[in-house]
Structure formats: C-alpha cells, structure tokens
Amino acid sequence: MQVDNYGTVLLWSPKAEAMFGWSRDEVIGKSLGELAICGDKNLGSAERIAQVVQKLENGISGWRYETITLRRDGSEIVTEISLTALRRRDKIIINMFLRDISQRRVAEEQLRQAQKMESVGELTGGLAHDFNNMLTVITGTIDILADAVADKPQLAAIAALISGAADRGAELTANLLAFARKQPLQPRAIDVNSLMTDVCKLLHPTLGRQIEVETVLGNDVWPALIDPGQLSSALVNLAINARDAMPNGGKLILTTGNLEVLPDDFKFKGILAAGRYVRVTVRDTGTGMPEAVLDKVFEPFFSTKEPGRGTGLGLSMVYGFVKQSGGHIEAESDVGHGTTFRIYLPKAIEQPKQLAEPAGEPRAESGNETILCVEDDASVRSFVLTQLQSLGYKTIAAENAADALALVESGEPFDLLFTDIVMPGKMNGRQLAEAVALLRPTLKVLFTSGFTENDDVINHSPMNNDVLLLPKPYRRADLNRMIRLALESPMPAIIQDRRVSAQS
User: Fold this and answer.
1) Is the model's pTM score more than 0.70?
2) Is 37 exposed, middle or buried (0-12, 13-18, 19+ CB in 10 A)?
3) Domain containing residue 406: CATH number
4) Which one of 102, 184, 417, 449 counts the least CB within 10 Å of its CB?
5) Which one, of 300, 304, 342, 345, lies nearest residue 326 by Cα?
6) What is the pLDDT of residues 65-82, one digit of tens each?
7) Could you tell me the CATH number of the domain that includes residue 47?
8) Domain range holding 6?
9) Alpha-carbon dihedral sign for residues 39, 44, 50, 56
10) CA–CA separation, 489 vs 467, rounded Å?
C-alpha cells in the first residue's frame, strides 16, 4: 500500500484487497480516514501519517507499530504496520507494509494465560501439600481426643467443632490440589452421553423448577478417557454457577460431540495436542460476564459472589481437573445473553466397560505385623508411628527413601511398606517401592500423599486397581482400614511388572 502525506491512497496491492475487502478501484484516491482502515481507538490515520512526516524531517525514515484496523465488513483485525517515508521533490510518499497478526496475538495471550495459571498452580500445590501434612496430624488425633472427652459434653462439643473445621480444611486443600492439577485421578474409558444423562437426573432437583435443562447429545460420540466422578462434579459445578447467573430463571443446555484437532490448527496451538477429543458444552441464558471477569474466571479464590456465598474455587477446580486429564476448557460470555463453557476431553482408545461391583473390604481390625513407615515430615511420622503402635503393629521408621532402602538392604524384616510418594532426595516413594520389590519378592505396599507431583502411580494414567493410596489428610480409622487392606491384598501389579521387566 502507498499513500501521500495527506493519507490519500496511491497504490493498493492484491494482498491489501484480500486483507481488507476493498477493491483497488474503490480505494485509489480516497483517504485512509474515510475508509477507517488504519485508525485505532487512540490515534487516527491522519495523526499517524503526520508523525511519520515529522520523523522524516528529523532524519528518521522508518517506523513500525501494531494497531487495530478495520475490514470493509466492520470486523477488527490486529495489524502490524511498517512505514517507510520517501521524499520525492516537493512530495512525500509513504510505503505501508501491513501484516495480519491477529492469530499471533491470540496465541501469545493464550500462552501468557497458561503460564500464569501454571505459576499459580505450582504455588497452590506446594501450599496444599504442606497444609495436608499439618491436617493429617490434626484430623488423625482429633478422634483420640473425642474418645477421651466423650463423657464430658462441653469438651465433646469443642472436639466436634475442631473436627468439623479440620474436615473443611481438608476439603479446601482438595479443591486447591484440583486446581494445581495434583489430585489423584482414576481415568478410564467412559460413555460421556450416559454420564451426561445421569448427571441431568441430579440437576433437576438441584437447580429448581425455574431452570429448564435441555440436552443435545451427539450421535456416535467417542468414549472419553476421564475420571467419571470428577467429570460429574465438574458438570454439576458448572450447572450451579449457571443457576446463580439466572436468578429469574432461564435455560441450561448441555451438548456433546466429537472434535479432531489437526497439527496446524492455530486455535489450539500450545493448548491441545493434535488428536481426537470429546467436546462437552455447558451453556446458559443468564446474565453473562464482562471481559474483565471472564479473564479471571478460572483463577482460584476469584469470585463475583457476595462474601460467604462461595470460596471462589469452583471453576478453578474444573480447570485443574480438565487440564490434568490432558484436555482443555474455554469460556465465552455475552453480557445479558449468557455464558458458554466448552470442555475438550481426550478420546479413549478402548471402549467403556461395565465395572463389576467392588469386592467387600476386609474388616478394620488391628494386627501385629511389622510396618516400615517412610515419611519425611517429622510431625506426620511421629503421629503415624504412634497410631500404628496403638493398633498393635510393630513399626520401623525412615525419614527418606535412601534410609529406608538401607534398612531393607541390611535385612530388616517387615511385612508392609507404607511410604509417602513425594519426598526430598533422588528417590520418591514409587521408585523406593520398585527398588525394594527387587529385594523382597513378597512386598506389600501402601502409598500415601498430600499431592501427586505428576507421579505415574496415581496421575496421568489409569491407576491400577491393585495400587493402594491413602490420601492425606486421613483419620485414624482410615489408616487402620487401609493398612489391613494392604496387608491382605495381592501384591500391587505396578511392583510385579517392574520386577518381571528387571528379571527378563
């Protein structure tokens, strides 16, 4: 494109025609101001060109900037404009090189948002991990105090208050871990349409009569690899948020379908890997959200509700769960017309299977076996040892994986390895269990963790039903029950597979 120092178009290239929708005959001899092509919200085209002319007078012939430009149909595009001014006798000719960078801007914004959420998630996950260790001691000992003051009503009431607060704290850390993408997941192939139908049965009484629920389930929807319980919770969470956005009633529409992301699909660049996904959409006809709110909607503790009407963790939980599952969630909103959330779930390779009813768990009895307890937090380790000994078990303690492995190599006898997954040092709990399995063929293992730190035992892949995990924080009864279950269960398949591969 070429203009004079008044902004009159002298040259209009085929590329400019394709970019802006104006033909050459329509623009030659007209000013950019009339066409509103190169104006922006802060500075019009005439002022821009005047600045270029002034720069030329100062010996500067080139200039580059980015701005919003308008197409013939009124749509906006982000454009990079490079200007070069040339003096020809008594005239000034300005060459303009324009490039549409709208997609690049979108990709940069998506990357910036992803990096911000990742940083917040790392901080959140670390805090939740430390808080879980403290809660493990609190929730584990409150039962003992409650038993001791059972015959003293006033003290028993105080113990109940402490117990309730500890439970709320545990729920809060679980929510934080969900956002941080460090919660234990058990993904499997599921029929999303069937799950959606089941969820809708729960929604009708929850949302009330003033909310109409409509489902549009796609044909031949692929199976999704996802934790069904977490997906159900996510859908209910989105539905409740939609209800709150429709105080005078409205409509909630749930849809499903398939989506194939191609390698050159710019919309999902850096967000979703190329492949097949199941798309779940939750749309409401509520009040909608302005852009400033929409930009923060997945951040933890951000809420537009009144104080006391929520923690601000609902949507951040959904975001973390979907991201941890290898999917993506996006939101768009129109003030006064409603909000739409789209969830993209990875397609499962296998077909959904009907799960058998879980076998009955062994009774929570005490025992006299020897347990090797590996826990780096001194307070938690002391609590666990005290509880196990009170239940009749013999205990051996190790502060980290290296110390535990040294005990095993020395020939120390034990019946169960009870180990934290996330520990300082070169070896985590999973690696410790694999190393010990090579030395003790009949090893029994019970894992515990305040968060998963991307460990393959319980994260990013379907957890084998034989791998036992006791999430922190836990109560004394939970510890007792899982210890017995671990001692009386077959050896975890993850350990068997490791030993077989090492011997082959």
Assistant:
1) no
2) buried
3) 3.40.50.2300
4) 102
5) 345
6) 777 777 888 777 888 877
7) 3.30.450.20
8) 2-100
9) negative
10) 10
